Amino acid sequence: MTTTERSPYKVIGTRPIRPDGVEKVTGKAQYGADVRLPGMIHGRLLRSPHAHAYIRRIDTSAAEKMPGVLAVLTHHDFPAARDEMQELGEGAVNLKELSDNILASDKVLYRGHAVAAVAALSPHQAEEALKKIVVEYEVLPPVLDVMDAMRPDAPLLSETRFTREMTGQKSEKPSNIASHLQFKSGDVEAAFAEADAIVERDYTTKMVHQGYIEPHNATASWNADGTITIWTSTQGPFVVRAQVAEVLRHPISTIRVIPMEIGGGFGGKIPIYLDPVAALLSKKSGRPVKVLMSRTDVFEASGPTSGTHIALKVGVKDGVITAVKADLAYEAGAYAGSPVGAGALMMLSPYNIENFQIDGYDVVVNKPKTSAYRAPGAPAAAFAIESALDELAHKIGADPLELRKKNTAREGTRRVDGTAFPRIGHEECVDAALNSAHYRSPIEGPNRGRGVASGYWINAGMQSSVVAAVNTDGTVNLIEGSTDIGGTRASLAMQLAETLGLPFDVIRPTVADTDSVGYNDVTGGSRTTFASGMAVHEAGLDIQRQMRERAAKGWGVAADAVSYADGRVTLKTDSETKELSFAEIAKKAASTGGPIVGRGSLTARGAGAAYATHIVDVEVDPDTGKVTILRYTAVQDVGTAIHPSYVEGQIQGGVVQGIGWALNEEYYYDDDGRMANSSYLDYRMPTALDVPMIDAVLVEVPNPGHPYGVRGVGEVPIVPPLAAIANAIADATGHRFTSLPMSPRRVVEELHGLS
Amino acid sequence: MTTTERSPYKVIGTRPIRPDGVEKVTGKAQYGADVRLPGMIHGRLLRSPHAHAYIRRIDTSAAEKMPGVLAVLTHHDFPAARDEMQELGEGAVNLKELSDNILASDKVLYRGHAVAAVAALSPHQAEEALKKIVVEYEVLPPVLDVMDAMRPDAPLLSETRFTREMTGQKSEKPSNIASHLQFKSGDVEAAFAEADAIVERDYTTKMVHQGYIEPHNATASWNADGTITIWTSTQGPFVVRAQVAEVLRHPISTIRVIPMEIGGGFGGKIPIYLDPVAALLSKKSGRPVKVLMSRTDVFEASGPTSGTHIALKVGVKDGVITAVKADLAYEAGAYAGSPVGAGALMMLSPYNIENFQIDGYDVVVNKPKTSAYRAPGAPAAAFAIESALDELAHKIGADPLELRKKNTAREGTRRVDGTAFPRIGHEECVDAALNSAHYRSPIEGPNRGRGVASGYWINAGMQSSVVAAVNTDGTVNLIEGSTDIGGTRASLAMQLAETLGLPFDVIRPTVADTDSVGYNDVTGGSRTTFASGMAVHEAGLDIQRQMRERAAKGWGVAADAVSYADGRVTLKTDSETKELSFAEIAKKAASTGGPIVGRGSLTARGAGAAYATHIVDVEVDPDTGKVTILRYTAVQDVGTAIHPSYVEGQIQGGVVQGIGWALNEEYYYDDDGRMANSSYLDYRMPTALDVPMIDAVLVEVPNPGHPYGVRGVGEVPIVPPLAAIANAIADATGHRFTSLPMSPRRVVEELHGLS
Q1: Do A221 and B28 touch (CB under 8 A)?
Q2: Potential cystine with A199: which of A128, A356, A388, A574 (Cβ 3.0-4.6 Å)?
Q3: A342 with A642: CB under 8 angstroms?
Q4: How many whole angstroms separate alpha carbon A304 and alpha carbon A217?
């Protein structure tokens, strides 16, 4: 459903089949595991059985003698890493920690931490050889929970980590708290003192995984001249290039990263794990080497998102949210870098709140280093604030959506960092939710309840670079460098078609490798349709200009005497109208100056904020604790929906991931730091049988910072579900759950006072 | 050896290691046969055992039932081909003949002509299945020699082929002569009547093969949505795309051709043979299909160059060549399209001759359809004219080089088609030969002799399109679409380095596929370093402009206030000089507007003519007929030598191919049209043991049509050797050989009067 007026566009807003669709559903698309090269051998990693231990010795001599083994690797084979931060395309990265996370040096910091690697003629020979590697560990007590890790007496993951304040100041004593940040405004305590109603609670969420279908993989070929080719599944081949270059201290220009099709990422396919290992194994063996993770490897050793603890106090006076105090503690995993900053920055963004103090803590624990997961940091923060607002609404007898509408952020409202919002659409989302058939319908029956929640995601811009080459038959090859995860080949091709006034299917998009297109930042931050779309628009205008010039030259007039519209160049004089179609100009390219190639290359500014408001009805079985999602409506300001089906798909996917996070998913650890549920059998993600059809309501408040009004749409849909479902369960049961997941066990335990 | 003055260039003229060198010598480079895809199966072709026959029936039913067979194909699976000419990137092509040559329809026209194809799980299963295909032939008498084929009573390859005149007029009766062309000027008969000396002879050459090491190959994947991906060894992926599109009547925009590394081409890797077969087998089987030729397939069924018969009469008066009459008859093979036009156009180009009549005949015979072979058409023509000039020089007592110098073409001289030459370097070549240590040295000893000859090649321009993307570390990815056969990654990267004032090794060239770069014509006609070099230069200027704009913006001045030179942008005012290096501007790209990407896209005009003059000393063993090449000096006007080593390599390679052609190579047929020597054991190409070091003398007369003076260099070196060696043998033996090859057998037979 789209609430927009009649569209001014011809291609934008339609729903063509994605160019890569048939190839993917028929199994022809090439993923990383499909790569096969002459002479290719197989790499496998030895992983730590301990969550926290010193490595005292690694003896690989027996493994090196095993049949079929051509290379064995430990961290000693990596060049010494500098202990400094560097911008490597996914924000600042500590180079030593980046390297240590790939192959542990002096210490293992989580179970599954890689300590050595073998390359052999067959995967089985590699696995057998791993068993012959002797690692002497000095086992240390692990710390597995964010609150435990913050205690002064907690085991330290690193003796040289000190808490860094925003001022740059560092703590006197080493700590598991890597950093502390704060956003503050007004007089919070005074506002609480005057409040009509206050809610104060602690909220916790567990570490959860993105759950992409395709495990990490990397195939590398290190040539004798030092050039390296890497085939991999990644959201950002240029980031892989930058990070591999840094870990191996190898010039980026000698590294070519070929992005294969990607079987899901959700943020988790931005960091590198296997790529430098495959590369060094290739260097040592002289062969191309392919390395694959198992599902257990993916759970134990790739980056999930943080478990969190949020202590929140919210005050309301006369229906206005006047005060918020929040302490956010996020697990970073083994190395610093949780998304607590994003959580702290964004949690209040749907609202206009005068007095607040938000403190954020980035905390290391003996679990895998977290990585981005769809709207990283925001869902847990929204779980807290949106749960509290729901409770406050009930306290003051307000409709929970009306409370949100009354306090909504609008154009000009300042975010907690002081930035004023441009035109945004939160209020429109709340209005659409209020007016929706879903919200107007009654919710009836025992153990049933309804919840709502809003969410915000900032969206990113960053760099994109595309080339569009006109074929002589009037089709156009669009050459871009953004991995296509959610249909961006389509959404970019549609924008080029719109710019050129051509039908969609004459645009043929291709995702090129790092040697074959200008620099492109990751497919992440919901940036690709927005930022690469701007580059595509620029390339389209470039083609328009060249076509006008060529037509004008042929007609013997100045280029500015002719116009380009609807796929035609037109010359209008008092006496006549001359026209040439795109295809006619394309056909004559050879004789009018050669191939026509457009270019767009930019650092995109003006990313539009995304807002969403969700409504969910649930039924709770008080005997089994099972929560059934009866109905789910996700309202979202999508800016302009380029391809509404894929926008809806993004919303539906994000909601379903949120449902899993809310109800079932969690990293379940034993006391020694062993993940007990590291398979899809035990790690319970929602299946199609677990969820109803998610109704997506597209509100279109065009982003003024984009030629077609595009906002990113992929991340914000995962922000409201955690709270919306908790609020619905509270409505159904009268019990407020503040810890996720609200799994059958927890529901039964809490409802029956067993926990 | 380079005769140039001190170079104005920093990178051009140096000899760096080619970017693809290490990968190739270490076996890591990926050729077509290396492609392996999941589910890939293997295709093989059934070929005709007859040189000329009607196909009455093909029964594939038994083959279809063979184990492992997933698809069987005959010409009936191709869409009906239109019997018309179309421009498909390698000149005009008859669409029906293009299709029929790939899989025969009603008639087979040469032994080895493909009639059916099978795809099976293994190559062996495919080969076994081929044996089960029943083809009923009605065998016809073949015609194997160009002169035989021109006889009125010759068996006709096609009842519907009529001789086409340049006027478009057609012959009344069908004929094996596909076309006749003529260049004529002055009064030839009058000039002969006044001549001091005349030579009149018939010259013949045999069909010879390019002899590239890598056989033809194609792997194709036809997806359910009709998109086709083809991995192949080709000189022109865009031509493959165009031709496959035409044969399959499939839109070019749905076909992606990925050029693999190429193991030699020399013109023979321009046409398509296997690509549409692999594609249709893939469509039928639903699997990716790889098809490879054997060496025998390559000889029997890919395109060699024409056997020729040239009747030539040349007259001289007062040392001036006053009259030429030439009849050139070239074998086209099974379908029209010999290079007789090029031979006729170019044979007199080294000279300024007033009166001439040149007639050319394109003649079909029951042998494989010829394709381009290095300077196609020119070597046989040069063999004739340069042999005759040698004989004339001896007749009139002139030094053979002095005769050539006296008659040399210069700037303003008209080619036989009336085109006036711009600045050319034939006279400089003759002078360099005259002054060479080789020519000044005596040639002594029994059975030894010296010969000289000149040659000309026109060189091509055509379309090129490149993109150059600046990396943040100050390196540049050069993305081009020209298959790299002779070192063009290096020669293009060098031109970009020169344009940008950067060292060679910061430029990283990549050859992209047809979906990933603008249109590029074939690597052929010695055009790539010239034409793609112009595009590279344009892209470099584009980067210069962007860097000037960004630096100027940072300094707060207009872009035209700053200059770019030597890899730096400089602002000079009365009071100060500001500078930013290329790397500094590259590093800041993200914050100054995004990735910096340059573009060059053009139809190159101004290709420079190439001239060469060769000197060769031989020793002939009168008992065995073996001819030993004692010394060989090849002088060539190379314009500007971008990479002198690769220019020398091109010259040496061309000369050695010429030596093979002159002395040993030939398609040897029995009376039934069976090639008797279709292996490298029997088809005698020169090895390193057969030839001395070839001395290449580079004369540099810059081409005024190119920013760096580049002329094509790859083809002309094969033009003079045939005649130069024949002239040397005549000098050594006193016997003039007018038929190639001058193999031991022929030499013995002619010297001893046995033939």
Answers
A1: yes
A2: A388
A3: no
A4: 17
Identify the helix (H) or strand (E) that includes residue B725. Answer: helix B721-733
Q: Which residues of A touch B517 (CB under 8 A)?
A: 467, 469, 479, 516
Cα distance between residue A332 and residue A327, in whole Å: 16
Same structural domain for residues B654 and B685? yes
Residues in chain B within 8 Å Cβ distance of A602:
593-595
The alpha carbon of residue A483 is apart from the nearest alpha carbon of chain B, in Å, by 15
pLDDT tens digit sequence for A201-240: 999 999 999 999 999 999 999 999 999 999 999 999 999 9
In terms of Cα–Cα distance, which of B232, B274, B228 is closest to B31? Answer: B232
**In what order do the strands lie in the sheet containing A597-604?**
A507-511, A476-480, A462-470, A597-604
Nearest to A512 among B506, B516, B596 (CB): B516
> Is the same domain home to A707 and A573?
no
Residue tagged active-site, from A331, A498, A715, A750: A715
Query: Which of A604, A634, A661 is a domain's end point?
Result: A604
- Note the helical H segments in A357-435: 378-396, 400-406, 426-434
Q: At what angle do helices A721-733 and A644-663 cross, to 10 degrees?
A: 50
Give tens-digit pLDDT for A49-61. Answer: 999 999 999 999 9
Find the helix or strand (DSSP H, E) in which B625 lies: none
Residue B599 sits in which domain range?
21-28+461-604
Domain contains B82: no
Asked whether residue A720 is assigned to any structural domain, the reply reads yes
Note the ipTM here.
Answer: 0.91
Are B647 and B638 contacting, i.e. CB atoms less than 8 angstroms apart? yes
Sheet containing B476-480: give its strands across.
B507-511, B476-480, B462-470, B597-604
Residue numbers in A near B463 (CB within 8 A): 589-590, 594-595
Residues B617 and B592 in one domain: no
Calpha distance B442→B507 (Å, rounded)? 47
- A713 and A678, same structural domain? yes
Q: What is the CATH number of the domain that holds A527?
A: 3.30.365.10
Peptide bond into B142 cis (omega under 30): no
Helix (H, G, I), strand (E, B) or coil at B270: coil
Asked whether residue B2 is assigned to any structural domain, the reply reads: no
Q: Best interface-test mutation with A: which of B217, B477, B605 has the largest number of A CBs within 10 A?
A: B477
Domain count along chain B = 2
* pTM (2 d.p.): 0.94
